């Protein structure tokens, strides 16, 4: 097949019947990854893509050089104190991966560390470049130092399939232990004495369902917990206080927590409170009591306290509010910090308390009376606690950014209430935040709901302008207003960038999420179309290019079916576009877990009919569609490569317009290529395509 000719996928009719509905899927055969015809088809699509976009190579290289030129390649993170060490990472020019390091700790203020200059007492913990070697893909799933600072547990993946191999390194000698454990999942936790490491495994549906205990030097690991309910994931962690191991099991709507004294790793975990459908909760150890963040009779969550000997008995501390979604609680020896969301923005609330002879309950109640929120000056921003591993501290580390302010790391001094800027990510090439401006708009959805929109542009950019409109809208995930170096390549070419904070996300609280899931999922799609129309009607935009990934890729496919005329182009990355067929098949990775998000079309005919009404693959028709670029990865375990492959094949066979392009990374996973230079080059390709669509 000539690369100048669009690939034509063969049609192999596959019949399926559900709830009396018979459907013929002509491209189901693409789901067979081992079929040589599948590989040949994907390679033909890549060849066609290269031919169709070859003229963009100069622009792609230009954008790549812009990204590279604005990035301080030899850089480092702000050091975080943990025990006797300050931990940080370095990046070096010309190297794909970060290097994890540490230096001995002295005092509360982080040491002055200079990019490119190694300290005399600096110790390299883990060098991603050495580990990656010549492999095309490399990822670290776990990197955890034992509480005493002597051992490192780390895991690696060389395929992108998110199955990791766990190893252990003696940080005092630099030697690797012979212990090696294959096929584990992300995360893990040490016991208090560093003798034992807990990790998780996944089942055939890629669900983490088992927790194992590995004693260093042992040949056989003990199964600690196995979750039989296919809707539940499990995970394991160690509290900041290092007092408790916390084993969590959770579905999309329900959770259950078990705790164990971390000094007794072979002991039995005890349940905090048995699972109740619809009740989510998390436990944070605060010295002589627990904090519990939960949603029992509290849609936006409530903060409660509980005694150590009866953690299932909860006493309210911060009551539920309709306008404030409580996100998480971080507990320290003499204060706590509540991360919350209000009016579409994140915030931090500090609860100070002191050991003054009163009972823990009296101290905590006083802390809420004396609580205060930290103020930030910009109209749009995102803030969250970051890098606070030490339980006893008088400083709070936080991360801050906005659409014009590069990611910044602050220490907040609890004694003086001073925000101390430790580092702002350098943006080279003369970047001046004063050249840009950000706005919050509100679009009107078709049912009268006001949908927030975050917008950024150059001050001197003309209006209306070509616009990249981004959206996600699932899992209560919020796309908060943040900074992006690659985005500058659009803004400096006169583009407007906007985020549609559609329902299904969490920007406006739990109700915002509930109104964009299950049988209200169509609100996600109609909200996005309403925002696109609002951007044009109010003079912001002329040509709108839509972009989204994963569940945001479902959004891209759905809005293209709903209103193809509104978009000058669509970029769908690892897109969940064959949603109905995937959620119908419980043998596929993560499907059963997803029924709480989308509904169960396998057993419920109403859910089946509703999902069929919006699933992108099911609803492609003969209308003119905009140009579409779908990007996927062969080893993706979350959204399988065949979903966009089938979608593009059907678009090409059914719709007019286009062109419809498919790009498959043949050696990567859900996050795409792993090295930073490779990732920049791939982003430059997508941006070059977007720039052409916006200026065509």
From TrEMBL:
GO terms for biological process: proteolysis. Keywords: Hydrolase, Protease, Serine protease. Belongs to the peptidase S9A family. The keyword NAD does not apply. GO terms for molecular function: serine-type endopeptidase activity. Pfam families: Peptidase_S9, Peptidase_S9_N. Signal peptide: none annotated. Residues 483-691 form the Peptidase S9 prolyl oligopeptidase catalytic domain. Residues 6-425 form the Peptidase S9A N-terminal domain. This is S9 family peptidase. The keyword Iron-sulfur does not apply. InterPro entries: AB_hydrolase_fold, Pept_S9A_N, Peptidase_S9_cat, Peptidase_S9A, Serine_Peptidase_S9A. It comes from the Bacteria.
